[in-house]
């Protein structure tokens, strides 16, 4: 039985906390899907989505989760028999590659482990070795949600350019968009994808695919693309229903309108700065705890960490015990150690994650860290002192 009052807090890396403004606007009767305010609203949503992605090119909306966005993006630029190069820093990099294999695409792989970002030199060498130009696309996660590793997309693009390779750069921004700085056009991404349930602060159910003219040209060369996944009519609809290949996700769209209003009222620079400050406070607390005892940040270099999610290792049985204590006694749900299994810990239960994305502020972060301090104490986990003071100092700056 739980021993807390008040609201529960889902501190996992998605679905993220939904703002009251999003919840209120979704609590309405179904709208007319043929004319009126919904049609006008969506026309304004598209340019505001592009601002979040940092692109002047094309934006599309799919009814589905992040996995749907993976398949949608792939389906428009690669077909059975094509080759792609997958870059891996965790479970979700592998997941996108597996989606490509399911479409009959051959995946060549570069695995950089679970703690470090893409090595641009290795990437350049791999592309230079592709003398025949087999590789049609490079698949890269901006942030792998399982490990919290953040890749430098501008460096990935530079390595591709240095190799003189014509592959498309496709970037998974599901965990990062609206949290970590991402600039699609400035950094040279050809395709970027995200989903509604993380930095965009809307319930799961919508995926987004952004693409530039290079990717559109590749789509024009395809023999066929599923009518549902085809991004061409979605990006350039003659009729409203073509945005969605059918009925619109009406209430999700109202929620998205509210969340985009909040994001742009704050400003993208300020959104990124807020996430960086809050993440830095969490890291400062974790560094203090890690001075004594088993807790370790999964990513050692702060420059390689996401500002949306932090993966941690504390070992068994502490990982499970800490999560359960926080949920049952403080109403805070921490993320599981997804895809982080080892020989000694096959279920990855010695790992856990803190989600700090979207609609969060100082008191939410301090509440999470204070609850974790209590959980450490309740479970007799050895740790360094001064964690909350270290976090407070960052947040006071």
The number of helical segments is: 14
Regarding quaternary structure, what we see is single chain
Outline = globular
Overall mean pLDDT: 97
The major pleated sheet works out as: 7 strands, mixed
Low-confidence stretches: none
Strand content: 15-25%
Number of strands: 12
- SSE sequence, one letter per element: EHHEHEHEHEHEHEEHHHHEEHEEHH
| Amount of helix | 40-55%
Distance between the termini: 39 Å
Structural class: alpha/beta
In angstroms, what is the radius of gyration? 21 Å
**Main sheet: which strands, in order across?**
2-8-7-6-5-3-4
Keywords:
15% strand; 41% helix; 397 residues
Q: What does this molecule look like?
A:
This protein has helices at 20-26, 37-53, 66-75, 91-102, 120-128, 153-162, 184-187, 213-221, 231-235, 250-266, 268-290, 318-330, 362-378, 387-396, and strands at 9-11, 58-63, 83-88, 106-111, 135-141, 168-172, 191-195, 206-211, 296-297, 309-313, 332-336, 351-355. It is of the alpha/beta class and 397 residues long. Helix 4 links the parallel strand 3 (83-88) and strand 4. Helix 12 packs across helix 13 (362-378). It is globular and about 60 Å long. The model has no long low-confidence stretch (mean pLDDT 97).
């Amino acid at each position: 039985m739980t021993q807390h009052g008040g609201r529960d807090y889902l501190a996992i890396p998605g679905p993220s906390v939904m703002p009251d403004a999003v919840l209120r606007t979704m609590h309405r009767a179904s709208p007319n899907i043929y004319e009126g305010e919904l049609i006008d609203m969506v026309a304004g949503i598209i340019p505001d989505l592009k601002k979040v992605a940092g692109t002047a090119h094309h934006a599309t909306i799919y009814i589905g989760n992040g996995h749907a966005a993976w398949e949608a993006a792939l389906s428009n630029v690669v077909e059975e028999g094509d080759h792609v190069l997958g870059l891996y820093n965790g479970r979700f990099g592998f997941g996108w590659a597996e989606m490509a294999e399911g479409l009959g695409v051959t995946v060549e792989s570069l695995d950089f482990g679970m703690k470090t970002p893409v090595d641009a030199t290795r990437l350049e060498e791999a592309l230079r070795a592709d003398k025949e130009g087999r590789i049609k696309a490079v698949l890269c996660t901006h942030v792998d949600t399982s490990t919290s590793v953040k890749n430098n997309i501008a460096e990935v693009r530079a390595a591709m350019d240095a190799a003189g390779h014509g592959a498309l750069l496709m970037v998974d921004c599901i965990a990062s968009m609206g949290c970590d700085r991402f600039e699609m056009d400035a950094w040279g991404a050809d395709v970027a994808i995200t989903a509604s349930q993380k930095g965009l602060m809307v319930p799961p159910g919508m995926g987004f695919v952004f693409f530039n003219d290079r990717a559109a040209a590749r789509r024009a060369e395809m023999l066929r693309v599923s009518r549902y996944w085809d991004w061409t009519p979605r990006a350039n609809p003659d009729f409203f229903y073509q945005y969605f290949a059918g009925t619109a996700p009406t209430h999700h769209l109202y929620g998205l309108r509210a969340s985009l209003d909040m994001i742009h009222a704050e400003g993208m620079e300020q959104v990124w700065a807020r996430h960086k400050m809050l993440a830095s406070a969490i890291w400062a607390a974790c560094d203090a705890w890690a001075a004594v005892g088993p807790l370790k940040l999964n990513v050692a270099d702060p420059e390689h960490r996401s500002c949306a999610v932090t993966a941690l290792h504390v070992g068994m049985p502490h990982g499970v015990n800490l999560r359960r204590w926080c949920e049952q006694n403080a109403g805070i749900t921490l993320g599981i150690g997804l895809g982080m299994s080892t020989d000694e810990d096959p279920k990855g239960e010695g790992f856990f994650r803190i989600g700090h994305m979207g609609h969060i502020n100082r008191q939410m972060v301090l509440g999470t860290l204070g609850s974790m301090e209590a959980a450490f104490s309740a479970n007799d986990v050895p740790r360094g002192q001064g964690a909350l003071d270290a976090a407070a100092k960052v947040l006071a700056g």
